[in-house]
Specification:
heterodimer; A: alpha+beta; five-stranded antiparallel sheet; four-stranded mixed sheet; 3 helices; B: alpha+beta; five-stranded mixed sheet; 2 helices; 21% helix
Chain lengths: 147, 77
């Protein structure tokens, strides 16, 4: 399992492919890979957004990402998982978060991936500050509901 | 005999303060830590609290050496 907070942009699909290639113990064992990639949009709440700063509480984000992933491991039969989350300066089209879960079957892969995402959104201490097209800034006050 | 208090995100900006060190003898609970660090500013209703990187309630006890963090609702992912 790999969990990292990244200060630099990353390509979600290259990361996914690269990580899977290193996991020899997965070969021939997994039947389902559920993947969520969260990407920055250029619009939010009816305003054009040109950049975003993602602040976090470093020691606590690491602790909670680890805690959430291990809760998923206890709840479902997960063969492996990858969680990457950006911090710092982010621009539209940049990946914010990548979650991948490898399991034998699709149901547990989907459920575990969704669990990690929703728990991360509700418990991991990250905060988004947007810069709008007129250079004003605003903090995002809450995440969008899950459904 | 100290307690470290940290503020993040919009709360840090509105209070114009990122951290403070308090004398542990004068702080029994989270509310005490907030009041001392902010000089009695009103705590916003939606503020979340963590002690030593774990979420706690506002009435939670604080002890010597603790790190108490205050921050608004999280918006990652």
């Amino acid at each position: 399992m790999k969990i990292e907070i990244r200060e630099q942009p990353f390509n979600a699909w290259q990361e996914l492919h690269g990580y899977q290639e290193t996991c020899n113990e997965l070969r021939g064992k997994y039947g389902a890979t559920a993947v969520f990639a969260g990407t920055m949009r250029d619009t939010n709440a009816s305003a054009a957004v040109k950049a975003m700063f993602l602040e976090h509480y470093p020691e606590m984000t690491s602790r909670y990402l680890d805690k959430i992933a291990h809760q998923a491991l206890q709840q479902w039969t997960i063969q492996d998982a990858l969680v990457l989350h950006r911090v710092g300066d982010i621009h539209p089209e940049d990946t914010i978060v990548l979650i991948a879960v490898w399991c034998e079957h699709r149901d547990e892969a989907f459920q575990a991936c969704r669990f990690i995402l929703e728990e991360l959104k509700h418990r991991a201490p990250f905060w988004k500050k947007e810069t709008l097209s007129d250079n004003t800034t605003r903090w995002v006050s809450s995440n969008t509901p899950a459904k | 005999m100290t307690i470290t208090v940290k503020f993040f995100s919009s709360l840090r900006e509105s209070l114009d303060m990122s951290s403070q060190t308090l004398n542990a003898q004068n702080v029994a609970t989270v509310i005490d830590a907030w009041n001392q660090a902010t000089n009695g500013a009103k705590m916003p209703d939606n503020v979340l609290v963590a002690i030593n990187m774990d979420y706690v309630g506002r009435g939670h006890q604080v002890k010597d050496g603790d790190e108490v963090a205050f921050f608004p609702p999280v918006t990652g992912g």
